[in-house]
Amino acid sequence: MKIVVNLPFASRKTAHDWLDAGMRKESANDWLRELGRAIQPHKDHLSKLIKDGIKIKVHAAIYGKPNQIKQLDIHDALAQIADQVTDVLFPRQKGKTTPQTEDRHFWQVYAEKIIAEKPKVEIEVEELT
Q1: Structure confidence at residue 54 (pLDDT)
Q2: Sheet order of strands, 120-127 included
Q3: What whole-number percentage of the chain has pLDDT above 70?
Q4: What digits encode the pLDDT tens for the residues 26-76?
Q5: pLDDT digits (tens, 9 = 90+) for 78-113
Q6: What SS3 string covers 82-111?
Q7: What are the backbone angles phi and psi of residue 112, rounded to the nearest 5°?
Q8: Closest CA to 116 of 61, 62, 64
Q9: What is the distance between the alpha carbons of residues 57 and 124, in angstroms, rounded to a whole number?
Q10: Which terminus of the chain, N or C, has less C-beta within 10 A?
Q11: In whole angstroms, what is the distance from residue 89 CA to residue 92 CA?
Q12: What is the pLDDT of residue 99?
């Protein structure tokens, strides 16, 4: 399945350089909102795979303008995307611990940076067989 977020990736690590990269501080909230919207149609299926213990492979292609992409630490971006996808699937309740069975489900992860005029993120998710 393909999950497409039609916004520039808002990296937590490069937050101090957002203005230099042409991003706004609100980018993180916009990114999370759009990620949640993009995952919503697939949420039941992904949640079931995870609860059933099925291993998942995730490939994230991060498209962006050169001044945004060059600052992006791809390993940090991939870890952030995996965390945020998990958080969308299993929202954490304040004051309650999250069972370990609902955390970090991606058994194989890949990411790449792609220079493009239209920033977006494409997340390919598939079952490992």
Answers
A1: 85
A2: 2-5, 120-127, 56-64, 106-115
A3: 82
A4: 777 888 999 999 999 999 998 888 888 888 888 999 999 887 788 788 888
A5: 988 988 888 888 777 777 665 555 555 667 889 999
A6: HHHHHHHHCCCCCCCCCCHHHCCCEEEEEE
A7: -150, 150
A8: 64
A9: 8
A10: C
A11: 10
A12: 54
Q: Look up residue 103 and give its amino acid.
A: D
Instruction: List, in sequence order, every residue forming a beta bridge with 22; answer none if it has no partner.
Output: none
| Amino acid in the structure at residue 126 | E
Residues 6+ apart with CB under 8 A from 88: 35, 36, 39, 43
Distance from C-alpha of 58 to C-alpha of 82, rounded to nearest angstrom:
8
Tokens 């949420």 appear where? 43
Tokens of 120: 């977006």
Q: How far from chain centre, in Å, is Cα 43?
A: 14
- What is the C-alpha to C-alpha distance for residues 32 and 76, in angstroms, rounded to an integer? 16
Domain boundaries, the chain: 2-127
- What would the two tokens of residue 23 be? 């991003």
Q: Any idea what DSSP says for residue 117?
A: S
Fold exhibited by the domain 2-127: 60s Ribosomal Protein L30; Chain: A; (3.30.1330)
21 backbone dihedrals φ, ψ, rounded to 5°: -95, 5
